[in-house]
Amino acid sequence: MSQSTLTPTAPKPTSPASQASQQTEEDFCPIQGFDHVELYVGNAKQSALYYQHCFGFTVMAYRGLETGSRDVASYVLQQGKIRLVLSTALQADHPISEHVLRHGDGVKAIGLAVPDARAAFEAATSRGAEPVREPWEETDDDGTLRLAEIQAYGETVIRFVERGSYDGAFAPRFERRSDAPGEGFGFKYLDHMVGNVELGKMNQWVDFFARTMGFSQLVHFDDKAISTEYSALMSKVMQDGTGKVKFPINEPAQGRKKSQIEEYLDFYGGPGVQHLACATSNIIETVTKLRAAGVEFLDVPGTYYEQLEQRVGKIDEPIEDLARLGILVDRDEDGYLLQIFTKPIQDRPTVFFEVIERHGARGFGEGNFKALFESLEREQARRGNL
Ligand code: FE2
Q1: What superfamily in CATH does domain 30-176 come from?
Q2: Which residue from 96, 183, 245, 358 puts its CA 20 to 30 A from 190's CA?
């Protein structure tokens, strides 16, 4: 397998040290935002159509047999600033095939844009991050792309991407398919990306992001805040110095029955990315388009909208539109937010999407957790997993 292309390396066991070292250094690992999210999928060609037609993405670039990529086919899709890379292996004995066998379709790499990939890699690994792939370069007529990878939860990796002056179609040896993403359904940027980890491991990963990349903890929800009759979870949200990248990390908590996090861990085969939250500036229009395209969302009990305004105060959007579309509302001291969650994007009850529109609020919809979890549990029960 060529080391000169964006190809996967074998997964490594994860062992972040559990001791917190209070890192006070300013921005030792500066991050400019999300660059891309790479999903390993069973059939990238069909997935690309799904994300185009059901979610409004545009195919920007491609690699495969026709472009000289003998072992992997990848489609780069974009909407607003959100870039998804869907990759599938062309042979059985390939790390992508093995990943799909274990996990189903799922997020393999969280690509973070950095000014200096080598410096980010060295900053993180010198603070205990496990190296997955030493810094490497990819070059073509459009310039040089510099990359490096470290291990995150489960088999997920964090990929540092230094675009610098690279001006080609995503990466060298990708063929350009489009010059600019279309309007799509109104997705603007990735608001946050949530990981599910095993019981007792949340703090280890909170510490990992703090220690190796200088993230700080934004907020913490305990199992009293997030619990229903059946399940509970705990969550901490880590963010980078600029606040552009937010990683909530969930772990299951004791409930009477199996929690939604445990269901994910069972079917994903371990920790991994649970959901990607895409920001829109017009959630009513975005969700109308998603629903028309066939995207399924978690049901919200009709009673949710009774006395909604008494609970969350005055909002700009007509409540009847929110009720019709199943959009949730929450308010914190900074403002309010609107959000909705899709059902899992595949048959395994694992990865899903959130659509979010913020009106000042900086939270994650804590006020909706209970209504939401009850809805999730109804789905879990239908799957025989509760
Ligand atoms: Fe979320």
Answers
A1: 2,3-Dihydroxybiphenyl 1,2-Dioxygenase, domain 1 (3.10.180.10)
A2: 96
DSSP state of 353: E
Distance 192 CA to ligand 1 centre (A): 7
Nearby residues for ligand 1 (ion, Cβ within 5 Å): 277, 354
Side chain identity at residue 134, one-letter code: E
Higher pLDDT, 258 or 236: 236
Distance (angstroms) between ligand 1 centre and the Cα of 231 equals 18
Q: Across the strands, what pairs with 73? A: 88
Fold classification of 187-383 is 2,3-Dihydroxybiphenyl 1,2-Dioxygenase; domain 1 (3.10.180)
Sheet containing strand 175-176, edge to edge, reads 131-140, 143-151, 157-162, 106-113, 33-40, 82-89, 72-79, 58-63, 175-176
What are the tens digits of pLDDT across the range 202-240? 999 999 999 999 999 987 777 666 666 666 788 899 999
What was the pLDDT predicted at 19? Answer: 36
Condensed to tens digits (0 to 9), the pLDDT of residues 93-143 reads 999 999 999 999 999 999 999 999 999 999 999 999 999 999 999 999 999
